[in-house]
Specification:
The protein is mainly α. It is 35% helix and 5% strand. It has one domain.
Length: 83
């Protein structure tokens, strides 16, 4: 059977995984504004993650995080030093 999952996608782009997407949104909503980067910076970080060879099914292969959470956190750093 062929694997039709999107290897270089973020969670919000993937079909299925509704439980994971729901938990992601809950986690994001629990972060205070002071813990988050600006929307512009967030989108720039996600763009860099999407172009990274270490992205697999919305997960960073370097550290195991969901990139959508790491990219949102103000104090977080990319393990590949891309942002």
């Amino acid at each position: 059977m062929a694997d039709n999952s999107c290897k270089r996608c973020l969670l919000y782009e993937m079909a299925g995984n509704e439980d994971v997407k729901s938990q992601l949104e809950k986690t994001k909503s629990l972060m205070s504004p002071g813990e988050k980067v600006s929307d512009e910076k967030y989108e720039k970080r996600l763009s860099q993650c999407k172009n990274c060879d270490s992205l697999l099914n919305a997960t960073c292969l370097k550290c195991g995080c969901y990139v959508e959470i790491r990219a949102l956190a103000d104090g977080a750093r990319c393990p590949s030093k891309k942002w």
